[in-house]
Amino acid sequence: MAQHLQDTTTLHNGVNMPWLGLGVFKVEEGAELIQAIKSAIRHGYRSIDTAAIYENETGVGQAIQEALQENSLSREELFVTSKVWTADMGYEETIAAYETSLAKLGLEYLDLYLIHWPVKGKYKESWRALETLYKEGRVKAIGVSNFQIHHLEDVLKDAEIKPMVNQVELHPYLNQQELLDFCKEQGIQLEAWSPLMQGQLFDQPVLKQIAVKHDKSVAQVIVRWDLQRGIITIPKSTKEHRIVENVDVFDFKLSDEDMTLINSLNQDQRVGPDPDHFDF
């Protein structure tokens, strides 16, 4: 269980990945993006999650370079994730997309590269490409995003290398318990995107009650809930005080009763697309 912002979990290939990171979904290129990342790193974040489709990899790379210099950090102290978009699925296309992401980020390697969505008929070829990149030592870890159990089972039938991470929409209204259990059995680390449900849970009565009890915010309660379930989480914010607040979660613990109450809020409700019905 994480005790500090920079604590890590060990993926099945031995790579250490921070339990907490900053997501930059829908943050446009520009000063706001750069300042958010630099602020996060200054306050102790060591994991940054982006994707080709976010169209902000250049800004992420600039922010990382500036933050490394300003905080006297080495590249190896950061964990950087990106993802191949659906339009670039296929073996050669995925290799090329990786090269493009690296160039935009200005990095020599990624710590984690993910298949963004399970495009039917194409994701297995993209997985072969990720295996090649991994075997060549060009990426530290590989994984998938938005894969349900049947997608994972399909990949595992032919994969030489098991995915290390599965990043999915996960929050109290979509707790993904069955998927979490499957991933734990397979040694695949589950990671939550949109853990705060894009702010839609901040007025949820049960969460507010638990937050008041612990003198914490609803966001902090949700992040703590993720960690206590063994889930990596990447709350997104561009505001410095929120960036700091979201990860101030190491001075309290949710009780078994708290955890049960939060788990009972599940409605299988999504804010993002259903992976089985996504318009690719």
Roughly what percent helix?
A: 25-40%
Could you state the order of secondary-structure elements as H and E?
A: EEEHEHEHEHEHEHEHHEHH
What about the largest sheet?
A: 8 strands, parallel
Give the termini distance in whole angstroms.
37 Å
**Strand fraction:** 15-25%
Mean pLDDT: 97
In DSSP terms (H or I, runs of 4 or more residues), the helix count works out at 10
Care to count the β-strands? 10
Instruction: Please identify which CATH superfamily we are dealing with.
Output: NADP-dependent oxidoreductase domain
Q: Can you name the CATH architecture? A: Alpha-Beta Barrel
CATH class: Alpha Beta
CATH topology heading: TIM Barrel
How many structural domains? Answer: 1
Rg result: 18 Å
Structural class: alpha/beta
Strand order of the largest sheet: 3-4-5-6-7-8-9-10
Low-pLDDT residue spans:
none
Described by the principal axes of the CA atoms, the overall outline is globular
List the helices and strands and how they pair.
Blueprint: E1 8-10, E2 16-18, E3 22-23, H1 31-42, E4 47-49, H2 57-70, E5 79-84, H3 91-105, E6 110-115, H4 123-135, E7 139-145, H5 149-158, E8 165-169, H6 177-186, E9 189-193, H7 205-214, H8 218-228, E10 232-233, H9 240-246, H10 256-263
InterPro entries: AKR (IPR020471), AKR5G (IPR044500), Aldo/ket_reductase_CS (IPR018170), NAD(P)_OxRdtase_dom_sf (IPR036812), NADP_OxRdtase_dom (IPR023210)
Domain NADP-dependent oxidoreductase: 31-266
Family: Belongs to the aldo/keto reductase family.
